[in-house]
Specification:
Length: about 160
């Protein structure tokens, strides 16, 4: 039997930057995609988490084999009563997943994961802005930005 591959199978190859850009443009035709050879891309598009939500212009910067870096261009994200916005990295990048636990990898489509996760983050942000309660993950930045090494069993030590 041949090697059966599923969409996120660990044997599947990484999606190239050009492939990521093509899917982003296909699913979001009004957006812009700028490719830097086949090394990196910048995607800019509009996201509206719900019909009652603001429309956000979002920028995603992606360099092959690194995590996508997502920022909101407009409107500017604001703190609530001087309280720091939850799940926001210092460079105002959205915290969408735990990279070190491999919750996203370069075999996954940015258009089908990162963009919807950004929309969900923005929904949580709007709820937090109105109520002061963050309805998303309660786990705040679980460590560094490097993938976690697999744990060794006690008998390996």
């Amino acid at each position: 039997m041949g090697n059966k591959r599923t969409y996120y199978n660990s044997n599947q190859r990484k999606l190239t930057v050009a492939m990521q850009g093509a899917v982003l443009k296909l699913l979001f035709p009004d957006s812009t995609v700028k490719l830097n050879k086949n090394i990196s891309l910048t995607w800019t598009g509009n996201i509206q988490p719900s019909p009652l939500s603001d429309v956000y212009t979002v920028k995603i910067r992606y360099k092959l084999s690194n995590r996508p870096r997502v920022t909101v261009v407009t409107p500017e994200l604001i703190a609530r009563n001087g309280v720091r916005i939850p799940h926001l990295f210092p460079e105002k990048e959205l915290c969408l997943f735990r990279y070190k636990y491999y919750e996203w990898n370069s075999r996954m489509s940015i258009a089908e994961t990162i963009v919807p996760w950004a929309s969900l983050w923005l929904m949580h942000y709007e709820i937090w802005l109105a109520t002061g309660v963050w309805c998303g993950s309660k786990q705040e930045h679980p460590g560094g930005d490097k993938p976690k090494e697999p744990e060794q069993s006690a008998k390996d030590n």
